[in-house]
Design brief:
With 305 residues, the chain is α/β, with parallel strands linked by helices. The chain has eight helices and eleven strands. Helix 6 links the parallel strand 9 and strand 10. The protein is globular, with a radius of gyration of 18 Å.
Length: 305
């Protein structure tokens, strides 16, 4: 069958996937963001060729890392209807890394790969939102493949977050493992841009068991990790509890923690491009979420239901 993707895009994908065998966790994070936020992805809106191309890339990264599907394959499609009556098929991508000392609880690590697509002829590339989160997700997968986790870990690239958390809601409606077995959802959404060099971890205020773990991570983190944005004390618009995919888990009573930056001038703008990412901060941010996810695996019994 003839490919529907430009040859130049396929060449970029193949070149990126030919990374050195000795590459460590997070070494490809910048490449992941650059590729996923390229114009060829057309903003990765659900149900579009750009979304399919992004999915192709993520799946190849899954395979290169050595991830295994849970069930018959990585892809878990779902359907939803937009306000205009259009029915769209989204696709979540789910892999599992088996733990060395499983106790019936699992970590579910998530990041959405969709963005808002093309508007008025302009491509919204979504480098920070959320190619950066997917890069963090892949870095965590690399870390756990290099040094296996204690618990089973699900690596989940979610579709259709923009406009309703559709992929996350589909996941929790038909989870590949029982919801009761999910000890913690760790969600990444926007990891790469903050003028003050700050990354936030939300979730400790409503879930106090998270705080000592996050405090320990903050002391060792290569980025300034702050806790907050998880209550209405500073205004509902600053409470992130339901503002990304972890919200779907929270609604089901699943413990959650969310890593992200505060809004910035490029948020949901056509200027959210790879070139505007401060690379040292992003690299430190990715290293921080890898460190944090490892800590949650090691101390999952303290936070799981």
């Amino acid at each position: 069958m003839r490919s529907t993707f430009p040859a130049s895009v396929l060449a970029i994908l193949l070149a990126a996937l030919a990374a050195p065998a000795m590459a460590g966790p997070g070494d490809m994070a910048l490449d992941d963001v650059k590729i996923l936020s390229a114009d060829a992805m057309q903003g990765r809106a659900p149900g579009t060729p750009g979304s399919q191309l992004a999915r192709t890339y993520i799946l190849e990264r899954f395979k290169t890392i050595g991830l295994a599907p849970i069930g018959e394959g990585f892809e878990q499609p779902f359907r939803f209807t937009r306000k205009d009556g259009t029915t769209i098929t989204g696709v979540n991508l789910v892999a599992r890394i088996k733990g060395t000392a499983p106790d019936g609880k699992a970590l579910v690590v998530t990041a959405h790969y969709d963005h808002v697509g093309v508007r008025n002829g302009q491509i919204y590339n979504g480098a920070d939102d959320n190619a950066s989160g997917v890069a963090g997700l892949l870095a965590v997968a690399e870390a756990f493949k290099a040094k296996p986790p204690l618990h089973d870990v699900l690596i989940v690239a979610l579709d259709a977050e923009e406009g309703g958390l559709r992929g996350a809601k589909a996941f929790v409606a038909q989870p590949p493992i029982p919801l009761s077995a999910i000890g913690l959802n760790v969600n990444f959404d926007m990891l790469s841009k903050n003028a003050k060099g700050e990354l936030y971890a939300a979730g400790a205020s409503p879930q106090p068991a998270l705080k000592p773990i996050l405090d320990a991570v903050a002391k060792a983190a290569p980025v300034k990790l702050k806790l907050g944005h998880d209550t209405d004390a500073d205004g509902k618009e600053n409470n992130w509890t339901t503002q990304s995919d972890h919200g779907a888990f929270a609604e089901k009573g699943v413990p959650w923690v969310y890593f992200g930056v505060e809004d910035h001038p490029e948020y949901h703008q056509s200027t959210d491009d790879f070139e505007t990412i401060p690379q040292p901060f992003f690299k430190a941010s990715v290293a921080t979420v890898v460190l944090a996810t490892r800590a949650f695996d090691e101390r999952l019994g303290e936070v799981a239901r």
